[in-house]
Amino acid sequence: MTDVSRRKVLSLLAGGFVAFLASPSAVDAMPTIRAGDICKKLGRRTTEGNKTFECVNSNGKRVWKRVTATAQPTSTTQPAAPTTSEVKVLDSSALTVGKSENVVVNSGGRNFAVVVTRTSAGVFAFNRACTHQGTLVTVNSLNQLECISHGSLFNLTTGAVIEGPASRALTSYKVTERSGAIYLTL
Ligand code: FES
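A: This is the predicted complex of the input protein with FE2/S2 (inorganic) cluster.
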């Protein structure tokens, strides 16, 4: 082989090597962290390919140490949805049209003071706690729910504020009536 052709072969080989180093796959394959390399922040973890490194203290120096990657959970546990339950509160016959009953409903270990009213439009139920400061409301002579503490008035079928100082409607409950009984969902 002549000197000229030998130089050509060497030049082609060198060019190919440079091209290999510059190729993305070659760069990707080259690790940028090796165990024992200096790191900055203790406890920091980083993963390269299938290798995980953690910055640890070793003989007074902060260095990367290869660790076993912690398995990632494949599913997350969803917080339990709030539970509601249906509770029988009255026999249907106990609530004729135009009548209201104050009942105490136990649900989930808690007691709820509730007023249940039947009108020609249906049965309605509200928590009796006034939304101002919690005094229990009662039905007044005008068929409104009235709080005697500071005079708030609420609509008997919607729970909406008629007069303050309360500014929020009473808490309402879903009412279901079947087989001669009235149930609330709390
Ligand atoms: S607590 Fe009912 S109006 Fe104040």
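Confidence is low (pLDDT under 50) at residues 12-29, 73-79. The chain has two domains: 32-70, 86-185.
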